[in-house]
Write a structure and sequence with these properties.
Jelly Rolls, about 325 residues, alpha+beta, 2 domains
């Protein structure tokens, strides 16, 4: 399999990044030539058509595209739906490689078994395009990259480091995609994770999940830990915290509302657990990571947020428009 192998032992130089949104149809990607820089495109919503060195492609939601240097990108037709995507430009040391199947299978198995590679060569192998299986994880990484690079720092070296971390996150996301594609993930917990996301609520517990899947809570806990690499109770808590993080970053909702929307029973419990998990208060987290998307209230549809949050977000946006 031919992949782009990016060497992280050499510096990765961040150039620029942003989030593009076209709420109305009729947008077309402008023509541009990447001489020495890479571009990452992570599509959040809709789709759009481009040509890469004359070859037509359609970029869909939940796809990540890594466009290498010496590539001309040009829109080929106007969009018919709303479009939203992250984009990042950077420079790095890289080469095309034909990764042997045996090496690729080893990486896939390590990812399926949650076994770190301890790769001293520090290489990330990425294709031109792949589907992102865990949208939430990648979305958070891009949010953090945009937030960090849009704030003042006495040195810009941190921009290069967070770009490097983004590449590592994408390398892991690509391996997870291959794990899913090759069927290395065991079906029991795969279906279980999908069911949990579809039925997530404040009342969802290990006991109720075990009852649904006709397992004992002890066996379920052991199986989930073995196959997913983390404790089920911690997994449920982490999901709540991730929902809260996204709401803190992408909305102006009061923290008390966020606690309820993220399935916590009370504010005090939320504040205590949030600080335990993130080492900062919800207010500190919003101050640290929330200055990029406060003008964009759209929420990742893949995370388990109640439908009535749309009404709350609409009200927030309308009130903000009136004030401005």
């Amino acid at each position: 399999m031919k992949l782009m192998q990016i060497t992280l032992k050499q510096p990765v130089w961040f150039y620029k990044a942003g989030e593009f949104s076209a709420d109305q149809p009729g947008w077309r990607h402008k023509r541009m030539y990447h001489e020495h820089d890479f571009e990452i495109i992570f599509c959040l919503r809709g789709h759009f058509d481009v040509s890469l060195n004359g070859k037509p492609h359609r970029i869909h939601a939940n796809e990540c595209w890594i466009i290498p240097p010496h590539t001309t990108v040009a829109g080929t037709q106007d969009t018919t739906t709303a479009v939203d995507f992250f984009w990042v430009h950077f420079f790095c040391d890289w080469r095309w490689v034909d990764l042997p199947d045996v090496h690729l299978r080893k990486l896939i198995q390590q990812r399926a078994d949650h076994e770190p590679t301890h790769d001293l060569e520090c290489q990330v192998n990425l294709p031109l395009c792949f589907k992102v299986e865990n949208r939430q994880e990648v979305l958070l990484q891009f949010n953090q990259l945009l937030d960090y690079t849009n704030r003042y720092h006495y040195t810009d070296y941190g921009n290069h480091l967070i770009a490097q971390l983004t590449l590592i996150t994408l390398g892991d996301a690509y391996l997870k995609h291959l794990v899913e594609a090759t069927g290395n993930v065991r079906p029991k917990t795969t279906r279980m994770v999908e069911w949990i996301r579809a039925n997530f609520s404040a009342d969802l517990t290990v006991a109720t999940i075990a009852q649904h899947f006709e397992m004992s809570p002890d066996y379920l806990t052991k199986l989930f830990k073995q196959e997913q690499g983390k404790n089920l109770r911690n997994y449920l808590m982490d999901m709540k915290i991730e929902v809260a993080k996204l709401l803190l970053m992408r909305t102006n909702l009061p923290i008390s509302t966020i606690a309820t929307t993220a399935y916590f029973h009370d504010d005090k419990n939320f504040m205590k657990l949030f600080k335990k998990k993130t080492k900062m208060t919800a207010g500190q987290y919003r101050s640290s990571y929330g200055n990029t998307h406060l003008n964009n209230p759209e929420i990742d549809p893949s995370i388990p947020i109640p439908q009535d949050i749309s009404a709350l977000l609409d009200r927030e946006e309308n009130e903000s428009s009136v004030k401005n």
